[in-house]
Amino acid sequence: VGxxxxxxxxxxxxxxxxxxxxxILAAIGAAIGAALADGPLKGRHVLVTxxxxxxxxxxxxxxxxxxxxxxxxxxxxALRDLGARVTFVTGPAREPSPGGVDVVPVVTAxxxxxxxxxxxxxxxxxxxxxxxxxxxxxVSGSKMKKDGxxxxxxxxxxxxxxxxxxxxxxxxxxxxxxxxxxxxxxDVEAHAAAKLVRKGCDWIVANDVSPATGIMGGGExxxxxxxxxxxxxxxxxxxxxxxxxxxxxxxxxLRKPADAGAPGGDA
Length: 267
Ligand code: CTP
Fold this sequence. Notes:
Layout: E1 4-7, E2 13-17, H1 21-38, E3 45-50, E4 55-58, E5 61-63, H2 70-81, E6 85-90, E7 102-105, H3 109-119, E8 124-127, E9 134-136, E10 157-159, H4 163-168, E11 177-184, H5 188-199, E12 203-208, E13 220-221, E14 223-227, E15 230-233, E16 237-238, H6 239-255
Parallel strand pairs: 3-6, 3-8, 6-7, 8-11, 11-12
Antiparallel strand pairs: 1-2, 4-5, 9-10, 12-14, 13-16, 14-15
The structure holds cytidine-5'-triphosphate.
């Protein structure tokens, strides 16, 4: 878009002016419209979970994690740009939700499961959320106070439902392609491959979230795409590029459902 021609701030005259916002907006709209019309995911419904979950302790405190929601938001955007109808179930993330997708905000893992169940059926489901593994069972109705004894409060926990495993195991309405993420800090590939089997999903996008990588909360990701066909290491890339490559793989797999077990392709 642009530049427009005319008087510029530096005193010169000619091409170099910022295009009018209205013209920029129209160009963006046209590009997205074209993508929606022609995209390979046109007519497909893709579900994406994203962000952290918050598990309350009392009315003012909660347990959370460092997930920014960036990778999930970028994925939803990339799928939308390929023409998919995207349901974006997101925990309280730092990253704003993308436009042009159906956003379902949730707080806890149990809310997320209910929102996912309500959003099915879907052609593909991608679980990028960093779901808390446990919730507190003795949530206090009022703010917990120090009682002067020096003893910390005892929190009791119960395991949260595994949303990915639940959807991957559905007999009815199981999406043709179920993709999980695996956030690991050591033995990334081995742990992720075990997760693929344990959770019954088709692909696992594994990443190393050790603090030294700066991946959790950072702008880049280095992933290994694991399926029954093997493991494929992708180079370290901006999270939106990882999202675009993954969205292209999803589109390719849905085009040829028989190949859903194998990432394949050349994205
Ligand atoms: N996941 C989920 N529901 C949960 C826990 C995880 O849907 N209650 C999904 C995540 O969205 C991700 C995948 O499962 O796609 C793996 O998440 P991860 O946190 O790496 O694994 P966990 O199952 O929590 O296993 P662990 O903590 O033992 O590594």
